[in-house]
Amino acid sequence: MEKRYQVFISSTSDDLKEERKEIMQVLLEQNAIPAGMELFPAADEDQWSLIKKVIDASDYYLVVVAGRYGSIGPDGISYTEMEFRYAKDAGKPIIGFIHEEPGKIQADKSEQTVERREMLEDFRKLVKTKPVRFYTNPEGLGSAVSRSLTALITSRPAIGWVRGDQVPEEGATKEILTLRRRIDELQQELEATRVTAPSAAAAFASGDSTVELQYSFFGSPTNSTLDGTDFESYSDHSWNEIFANVAPLMIDEASDFEFKSALNSMLMVATEAEAERTNNRLKGTYLSRFKIKEHDFNTVKIQLRALGLITKSTRSRSVKDQGTYWTLTPYGDNLMTQLRAIRKPSAE
After folding, report:
1. Please, what is the angle between helix 239-246 and helix 330-340, to 10°?
2. Within a domain: 192
């Protein structure tokens, strides 16, 4: 369907008639729908309510700043600035067009008092917080608007408007809505099945079954990194214990580094507890630098994926970020709750 985009034009009025005319001509040539001050013969609170509705209905917002600040609204700022602030808060794609040589604007189109010139300068600075283009005459402004709008539509395509005869007929619309409801129902059914273990998981070790994890660490009697010994060790841990330790990190998502760090912390706690329980040579020793063997770390990842507890995160991120991130499945979230949530005391 062919779309037409509505563009709100914001500026002072009497001093920029030629500029606004040029912009409207450009927009019409690009099959866009211009909207702006011409629709509102007076600026008051009732008109302001209408202006906000028109900005809401527009796809893009253009503001032109030259030599005048504009009539002041009830908030103590000009209506042009009110429009800009409203469009900015509404998240509208904005481009500003600022006169490049304000000192050359004729006197009757410029502010005459110091106070008004200061308000205009403050507004210029505010507009520059968004992408801006500079112009010196109406023709140059029209050319800048044409290029800028084309680029903006390409980079930030909006909803736009279509002709009524291009909208699907009522029967087709009802069928689409019916199919969408069915899709929602099927998605809900799929989510419900995901809170239980996948059928293939029955073939894999889980729960209280244990696995031997090998790791290295550093022990120092003096809490010094210069005086100590490197150790190699191993310990047995159940899959429930392993998952209970790493799962909270994945409520949102966790990187490979965070995943491994959680396992290293678990191994440190287990080693310290074993030393205290058996009174072995490590008791009272400062332990640090725990590092699970890479082979065993990969085994843990594979096992938790096979059990349907974790999955790779699909969240969008920078192309420079090549890391691997993990998140809980609905089944994993449910099992984490069972393992980690504190239960109320049973009645005596």
Report:
1. 100
2. no
